[in-house]
Fold:
Amino acid sequence: MKFLHAADIHLDSPLAGLMARAEPLRDDLRACTRRAFAAMIDLAIAEDVAFVIIAGDLYDGDWKDFSTGLFFAEQMKRLAPRPCFLLRGNHDAQSLITKRLPAPPNVREFSSRRCETFRLPELGVALHGHSFPDRAVPEDLSKDYPDPVPGLLNIGVLHTSGDDPGEHATYAPCTPQALRDKGYDYWALGHIHLRQVLHERPWIVFPGNLQGRHARETGAKGCTLVTVEDGAITAVEHRSVDCLRWVSLSVDASGADEATLIARTGAAVSAALAAAEGRALLARVTIAGETPLHALLPDRHDDIAAWCASAAIEAEGSLWLEKIKLQTRPPRTMDAGALAPLRAAFLTALEDEALRRELLEELGSVRARVPAPGRATLDWPDDVLKLARLADEAWDAVEAAIAQERG
Structure:
């Protein structure tokens, strides 16, 4: 027997932050979450799974129109007669989705009032889950999950931030140790968009989202295929179903003239396409290093985009740009040691909390004057820690300005 575990599908959620050059991809961009979900259903059918689990955030929020729900119903008809066990998360909590359609016959939704158990005695499986009633769920829902059903493979389905201290908001927090202590064989988690296996035997798995939606969600995306033999889990495998893949490309411009930089950019694009399993790429390109081209590159974004597009054509792949980031600096015109005292004073000054707050306020004021379309694509420090991480980059800018002035 096999089953499929997915989460964080965010049907019809748009991709964020693409440059205008992605215009030819517009139809694909609008449909990519649907295409990834349809590919997941294709996988479920091809692997002849016994059932599918969706551990929260099937939807990105309230539907704009009924086409979102109708698409899900169409895919469930393809999946039938296999059941789909659906849990609501913070994005599609019971109170957030106002439009309604009759649930497809093979969809079994976990209650949002209490933890509910579905038993499949013919498969030797029991599934336990508690949907989110509202977007904000600050309590540990797993505490109220029941004891495992004796003699069955017990699966806990939970939308949770776990004990993750990262960028995801805290919802239904819990610890891996508490989940292990529950005595289940498998925890099908959702909410964290990066695939993570928190524990093996018992398995505690975040499958990640089906389709990356912005530049921080790089790499292969998909779901988890679980194989069960004689009542025990024997294999837990990631399967990619994304149709577009986000990548972060770094190009070293150190000492490069234009021909060298074009070649290095092309090599980075080719390598990324070769690793993309036939997917089109959505790329953030960062060019860094000490180069005589430093002063020219800010006015040559169109050229850099064309170098990337040309390399993609040569590699027989497709690539669109989310952003081009320039972190170059001019060749040094003086001994770095001569600037060491000034650099030390610069970095020491940035440790002053009052100065950091003042800089954040000033940056916020500048950001507010940037037109909305451009503002959305800025990597803007919005807290003291992010500002501090920019210290080395800020010093590079200061040193470049000094070098230019001396020149």
